[in-house]
């Protein structure tokens, strides 16, 4: 049998591509920007398997025309760019990369919390652009004051893998109190870490720092809107390393402009890349990052390995280890036969 065809929408790691080439006839899109939709559609029509990124829109229109396509291995934990329900109906397997990026994303969340609370970016600019020099003071009791984390309350929205690791660091590392909101109670973690459940509005009123770790779904779209931003403390800091669309950006800009909250640390945006003149770029109390939650050497490589494991398992007729749409097993068995 000829090798099944695989289209990979961005350069991954050489060693992982080599491994995949033992099973698949691999084509890699080697540009720095994503393939345009029309290109992805043409490729999808020709191939048996795809490796996609969150920048690739895989809608039902594309899936219906991809007659040979059997598996999509997403190089991300989130998969809101893929119409999962449609893929399942068509018998197309979808896999993601959970677990391997938990640590990196939790660490970036803490980088943003600390950078926002202690004004690190602002402080860097203060030194770098000579303002410190111009003040003539080497040290001043009221220079660049921030907020301390110990004893404060962290509100975690979404206590999944990433959210619970962020919570663990808060409790064990910073001596914070942690409250959480999730659609599921996590009594195991309540016992283990002493975290406490709150409904969403209660959490927003009580937390000093609020951090978002939910996937983007119809239910979480604009979950943080004007009304909810108004519930937060004026001293609150909002952190988002999940998906930009969970926050209503216009409402957030208004909240920052009018001082409803004290600051924000954002790694994800409704529009990515964020345009240079975006209102969010004007605030000193906002720390911005370009969607780099999982961007460590270790994690990005482990994500590629997991993509390969999923594709190899499927090739061998086994259930892929991190299958998203388990119901697809009833539609079609794994494999290309
Ligand atoms: C990145 O945002 C991911 O979902 O892995
Ligand atoms: C993602 O890995 C999550 O469950 O938080």
Query: What share of the residues lie within helices?
Result: 25-40%
Rg, rounded, reads 22 Å
Strand order of the largest sheet: 8-7-6-9-10-11-12
Ligands (ions, cofactors included): glyoxylic acid
Write the layout of secondary structure elements.
Layout: E1 5-8, H1 14-21, E2 25-28, H2 37-46, E3 49-52, H3 60-65, E4 71-74, H4 84-89, E5 93-95, H5 102-117, H6 120-128, H7 131-135, E6 153-157, H8 161-174, E7 177-181, H9 187-193, E8 196-197, H10 200-206, E9 209-212, H11 226-231, E10 237-240, H12 249-257, E11 263-266, E12 286-288, H13 297-315, H14 328-331
Parallel strand pairs: 1-2, 1-3, 3-4, 4-5, 6-7, 6-9, 7-8, 9-10, 10-11, 11-12
Helix pairs in contact: 1-13, 5-8
The structure holds glyoxylic acid (GLV) (2 copies).
Describe this structure in words.
By secondary structure, the protein is α/β, with parallel strands linked by helices. The protein is built from 14 helices and twelve strands. It has helices spanning 14-21, 37-46, 60-65, 84-89, 102-117, 120-128, 131-135, 161-174, 187-193, 200-206, 226-231, 249-257, 297-315, 328-331; strands at residues 5-8, 25-28, 49-52, 71-74, 93-95, 153-157, 177-181, 196-197, 209-212, 237-240, 263-266, 286-288. α1 (14-21) packs parallel to α13 (297-315) and α5 (102-117) packs across α8. The structure holds glyoxylic acid (2 copies). One glyoxylic acid binds next to α8.
């Amino acid at each position: 049998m000829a090798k099944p065809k695989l289209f990979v929408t961005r350069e991954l790691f050489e060693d992982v591509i080599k491994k995949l080439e033992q099973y698949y006839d691999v084509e890699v899109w080697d540009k720095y920007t994503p393939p345009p939709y029309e290109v992805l559609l043409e490729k999808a029509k020709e191939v048996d398997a795809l490796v996609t990124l969150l920048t690739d829109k895989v809608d039902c229109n594309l899936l219906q025309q991809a007659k040979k396509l059997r598996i999509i291995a997403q190089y991300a934990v989130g998969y809101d760019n893929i119409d999962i329900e449609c893929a399942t109906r068509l018998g197309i397997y979808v896999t993601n990369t959970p677990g391997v990026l938990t640590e990196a994303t939790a660490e970036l969340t803490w980088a943003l919390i600390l950078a926002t609370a202690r004004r690190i970016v602002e402080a860097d600019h203060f030194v770098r652009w000579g303002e410190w020099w111009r003040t003539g003071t080497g040290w001043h009791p009221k220079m660049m004051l921030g907020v301390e984390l110990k004893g404060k309350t962290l509100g975690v929205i979404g206590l999944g893998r990433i959210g619970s690791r962020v919570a663990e660091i808060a409790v064990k590392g910073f001596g914070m109190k942690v409250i959480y909101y999730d659609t599921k109670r996590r009594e195991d973690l309540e016992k283990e870490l002493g975290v406490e459940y709150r409904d969403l509005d209660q959490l927003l009123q009580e937390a000093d720092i609020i951090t978002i770790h939910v996937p983007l779904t119809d239910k979480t779209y604009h979950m943080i809107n004007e009304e909810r931003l108004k519930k937060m403390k004026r001293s609150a800091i909002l952190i988002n390393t999940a998906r930009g669309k969970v926050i209503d950006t216009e409402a957030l800009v208004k909240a920052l402009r009018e001082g409803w909250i004290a600051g924000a640390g954002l790694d994800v945006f409704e529009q990515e890349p964020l345009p240079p003149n975006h209102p969010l770029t004007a605030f000193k109390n906002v720390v911005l990052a370009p969607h780099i939650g999982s961007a460590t050497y270790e994690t990005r490589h482990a994500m590629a390995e997991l993509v390969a494991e999923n594709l190899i398992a499927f090739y061998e007729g086994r259930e892929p280890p991190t299958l998203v749409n388990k119901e697809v097993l009833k539609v079609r068995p794994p494999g290309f036969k």
